[in-house]
Each structure stands twice: as C-alpha cells, then as structure tokens.
Amino acid sequence: MRAFMLLASAALLAGLSNVALASDESAAACWQKAIVANHAPAVAQCYAVDAIMWFPGGPMATGREAIAAAYAGFLGANTIKSAVISEIGNRTVGDDRVAWGTYTIVMVVSESGATVTQTGRYTDVSRRIDGRWQYVVDHPSDDPPPVAVDATAALGE
Q: Is the pTM of this model over 0.85?
C-alpha cells in the first residue's frame, strides 16, 4: 500500500509539473494552462502560499489551500472548454509584476449541460518566487450587465 501511495504521489507531482510548474511562464500562462486542464491542484500551484484571490461574485480566498478548495468546487460544478486572457497592460519591477486585462471562459455547467461564456476583467500582482511567477493577488471580476438606456431620455425628449 505504501508503494502505491508513493507512486500515486509521484504521478500527481509529475502531472502538476507538466500542467502548471514551468519556470519561464507568467502566472497567467500557468493559470490558463491549468484551468483548461480542469485540474484544481495545478491551478492552485500558480498562486503563492499566502496569495489572496477574489472570485467573481464570490468571497475572498486567502492562501493557496483555500484557493485550491475554491477552484475544486468551481471545477466540480463546471468543465472548462477554453480560457482566454487578453492582457491590456503590465509593469514589472524586479521580482514583482502587475498586469491587467480581460478574460473569457467557456464552460459547461455539470448540472444542466449548458454551455456558458463568462467574460470579465482582471488586475493581478505576481511575484517571482523560487524562480517561478506566482500570483500574490488575483482580482478578476465579471463584466457588469449592460446598462438599460431609455431611448427618449438619450434623445433629449
């Protein structure tokens, strides 16, 4: 049994390194690869041990373990088909990087089978830790719903 557990642990770690632990990629590239693989532990490895994440429409998660648990719930309820991050800008100073942009996630809701597209914007801070870029603060938010415009008010009537 112990040998099986060691082999299973080694396989999990090997899978994580293939999915999310490349040292030359940004935290966003790590996240994008891991989320499309629908692998919550790999997604969590894109975050620093003490990272903070605000989930769109949800609570703040503090620490890699809480972030992993939140992603496990999210990926348990949805299967990600694609995730696109469109960076608008960034600034890097030493081992710290701030980036902002937009995202689009296409997922299938497990309960209903419906395909849903989620769009939003993000601001994140990452840090090079032990040679890898990891999120220390990740703050995505859903796009707000379109504002209803009263056509008569808009025309000045």
A: no
